[in-house]
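From the pipeline queue, job 12 of 40. The input is one protein chain; the requested action is below.

Action: predict structure.
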Amino acid sequence: MMRPDHEALIVIDVQNDFCPGGALAVEDGDAIIPRINALMADFATVVLTQDFHPAHHASFAAMHDAAPFSMIYMPYGPQVLWPTHCVQGTTGVAFHAALLTDRAQMIIRKGFRAQIDSYSAFFENDRTTPTGLEGYLKTRGVTQITLVGLATDYCVAYSAMDAARLGFGATVLEGACRAIDLNGSLADAREKMRAAGVRLED
């Protein structure tokens, strides 16, 4: 069923490196793709986001001789150090082959600034440097967004909370997402999303 024109679907980071076999694989990450493909047909506005890191990105554990998933503090706040992933020019950065990318009108690339990570589709992790997505959606007349993709507790959650902060109605379809769940991060993200006014549905 086609949604009203003021609703948009934001598909977060359905990329090879976040799917099984990838450098930062989310368990069953590829299992959500059929549902996402079906959802894309229902929205007049569809945006894909893509983690798009240079090889020397500051969020990579290898840049700090540190263990993956350890934590450091950057000028913009605490930062998880990730395995090297979604590097520009690699197969890992590409969208999963099963994702019907032609149904999207815009692709937002994030995390391309080497010194700052970017979970949210709207802002870098300093929470102030914009990606331009807010302006795009508002000029398209969008007031409600539905978010799906990878991973629930990081890029999906940050995007949803920023959407609510910017005045959009935000809904996360948890059944069309998968989580990393690092040290209880999923429960924490769900609590924070609810507190921010994000609707969680299956």
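Job complete. The chain is about 20% helix and 25% strand.
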